[in-house]
Specification:
- The protein is α/β, with parallel strands linked by helices and about 425 residues long.
- Helices cover about 30% and strands about 15% of the residues.
- It has helices at about 45-60, 80-85, 105-110, 125-130, 135-150, 170-180, 210-225, 240-245, 280-285, 295-300, 305-310, 320, 325-330, 335-340, 350-360, 400, and strands at about 15-20, 65-70, 90-95, 115-120, 155-160, 185-190, 230, 265-270, 275, 290, 360-370, 380-390.
- The strands form two sheets. The chain has a ten-stranded mixed beta sheet with strand order 7-6-5-4-3-2-1-8-9-10.
- Strand 1, helix 1 (about 45-60) and strand 2 (about 65-70) form a beta-alpha-beta unit.
Length: about 425
């Protein structure tokens, strides 16, 4: 990928928001997992190294760190990292599948200083358990929300929308509302990792014509319920519901402001590799490793992290280059575009784009042409076909038919504190 040279303004960009994969060890084997989590990487940062990174992030001005995995709490230094972030005044959040979050663990998290936790719930019970590849996962997630809330931790939830669960959005909201969540993030399943192996799960661009208005309607309803619904960075952009979707306050006029990877966002893989965003394909976007160079030096100098700081309309291609909103949007989410088409700069997951084509009686369809390699954060390749809006659906297997719970049941309760636990 080439860029027109634009001066970097170092004092403008800093890693305000950090997404940190503390370990790849996981007690799920989700069908849509971008990192293919399950077994820990052989060279993950230990507790001492992770705490050192906390101090480096704080020195750079980091405001919030989101810990995830795998399952972050399966890292032996998990509570130490939370405490170190608290001591340096950095906001602390956890994203979890919730499968082994017991009341005891929730209280330990709260004592260490965890402020908020988002538990991923990807549908009603049967659908969630299929997507998460574990019987009982849905019940465990709801129990985790209760345990975290009882421990005094602010709770929210996240859903990855795809063709297996898109019809359950409204009843899922009702389930989550009953748990007392304060926030709900709605994002699209991108064909990364295991999701790249199950392409029939992947939404088509024209599915946004149905989904985005439904999400907007739910957000308006959620305002009255005291719940904040926010779209993930790969959901949007610039349709008539854009201000409602992006704004934190009722009546706000916020809008998508371009990919912030390497501008205000930093991703950390569990072995210490840095990327502008954790979800970016590692093969193309790793800028360095914290064991070999300080975080500040990698942030400042690594070309692989600087791409959005220099991105202009000249870097866009396809529909995005000629779009009316090209300047503020700059082709939306980088990792989603790259996962679909092999490079950034043209993102078919766009509500405005789908509406514009729809008014012409056209739509775009993604057709998989290259398989993924099998590594964390890998992707295959899709071909983008334009066709009549009323074209019949291609004959594909039902997404639910691809989701079989293949994980063997465990024989006993998990020992979260154990460092030799299976992923």
């Amino acid at each position: 990928m080439t860029h027109r040279r634009v001066p970097i303004v170092p004092e403008r960009w800093f890693p305000a928001y950090v997404i940190w994969e503390l370990t790849l060890r996981c007690n799920h084997a989700c069908h849509h997992c971008g990192s293919r989590a399950g077994v820990a990487r052989p060279d993950e940062l230990d507790a001492e190294e992770a705490v050192r990174v906390v101090h480096e992030l704080a020195d750079l001005g980091a405001r919030e760190v989101v810990l995830l995995g795998g399952e972050a709490y399966l890292h032996p230094g998990f509570l130490q990292v939370i405490s170190a972030l608290r001591d340096r005044g950095v906001a602390r959040q956890l994203t979890t599948g919730g499968r082994d979050v017991t009341p005891e663990l929730a209280r330990a998290m709260a004592a260490a200083g965890l402020q908020s936790a988002s538990v991923s719930v990807d549908g009603l019970e049967a659908t969630h358990d299929r997507i998460r590849n574990a019987a009982g996962s849905h019940r465990a997630a709801l129990a985790a929300l209760g345990a975290l809330s009882d421990a005094g931790i602010r709770t929210g939830s996240t859903v990855n929308l795809n063709r297996a669960n898109r019809g359950e959005l409204e009843p899922l909201y009702d389930v989550l509302k009953a748990t007392g969540i304060a926030a709900w993030q709605v994002q699209l399943t991108a064909p990364l990792g295991r999701a790249a192996d199950r392409t029939d799960l992947v939404l088509q661009p024209y599915d946004l014509l149905d989904l985005v208005p439904r999400i907007a309607a739910l957000k308006a309803r959620a305002h009255d319920d005291g719940i904040l619904i926010m779209p993930g960075n790969n959901l949007g952009y610039f349709g008539p519901e854009e201000a409602l979707l992006r704004s934190y306050e009722r009546g706000g006029r916020d809008h998508f402001a371009g990919c912030q990877a390497g501008r205000l966002v930093l991703g950390i893989e569990s072995q210490g590799d840095l990327k502008g965003c954790l979800s970016l394909p590692s093969a193309s976007y790793v800028g360095g490793n914290v064991r070999r160079r300080p975080v500040a030096e990698i942030w400042r100098d690594a070309e692989a992290l600087a791409f959005t700081r220099r991105r202009t309309r000249a870097d866009l291609w396809g529909f995005c280059q000629s779009c009316d909103f090209a300047e503020p949007c700059l082709a939306g989410c980088t990792f989603t575009a790259h996962a679909l088409l092999g490079r950034a700069g043209n993102n078919p997951y766009c509500h405005y784009r789908a509406r514009t084509l729809g008014k012409r009686g056209r739509r775009e369809r993604l057709v998989p042409i290259t398989a993924a390699s099998g590594l964390p954060f890998d992707s295959g390749r899709f071909e983008l076909i334009e066709e009549p809006l009323d074209a019949p659906e291609a004959p594909i297997a039902e997404a639910d038919a691809l989701l079989r719970i293949t994980q063997k049941p465990r024989k006993g309760p998990a020992q979260v504190a154990s460092t030799d636990r299976d992923g």
